[in-house]
């Protein structure tokens, strides 16, 4: 079964509004989570690293004031798209590393499709 | 910067055919290499990985060998099944945990009975 969930799975919002996307690790704790963005028929692009208890680390070119990340607990990270515009329409995916027998394995959420009208 | 290039799809094969999906990369340092698979409606799942040159990752009949000399990590399977139909992503990461991955564009595989 899924070990990382995202909510909502899809959302439609009007231009200028804000949208919050949740990423939860279901049966493990994650001090770090990662947010990716995927445009249609394109690759996943890393947006930021979410750190529990501290500020997120954003990749070059990603506006931190527009994509607010809060990692409030060891099982929840949220991405808020503020003042959304149609160009923010995309598929947003989170991931979290989980310890396995020998090392860590990255688990991905199913993604959230955002459409801004 | 780091980058990953993989063959564009879709790739359409008949059941039991041989599969190759090419993947090449550019990176500084010595990255770990991954193949992830995404089934319809599901999140990406790790298929296999290799953490150093000449390592071979394998899982569910799929294999890929980390070739430093050709900067490649091609995915192969000897006999595909309909259930292998999915999108396959090649990726590189700075460590073997898969943190902060750089992905290729993804290749959709369709296997027909």
What does it look like?
The complex is a heterodimer of chains A (117) and B (113). Chain A has 117 residues and is mainly β. In chain A, 0% of the residues lie in helices and 56% in strands. Chain A is built from no helices and eleven strands. Chain A has strands at residues 4-7, 10-13, 19-25, 32-38, 44-51, 57-58, 67-73, 76-81, 90-99, 104-108, 112-116. In chain A, strands 2, 4, 5, 6, 9, 10 and 11 form a seven-stranded mixed sheet that branches. A four-stranded antiparallel sheet of chain A has the order 1-3-8-7, with no helix packed on it. The radius of gyration of chain A is 14 Å and the shape is globular. The relative contact order of chain A is 0.32. The model of chain A has no long low-confidence stretch (mean pLDDT 92). Chain B is mostly beta strands. Chain B contains no helices and twelve strands. In chain B, the strands form three sheets. In chain B, strands 2, 5, 6, 10, 11 and 12 form a six-stranded mixed sheet that branches. Chain B has a four-stranded antiparallel sheet with strand order 3-9-8-7, with no helix packed on it. Chain B has a two-stranded antiparallel sheet with strand order 1-4. Chain B is globular. The chains are: A mainly beta (117), B mainly beta (113). The A-B interface holds A 2, 4, 32, 34, 36, 41-46, 49, 93, 95, 97, 103-111 and B 4, 36, 41-46, 89, 96-106.
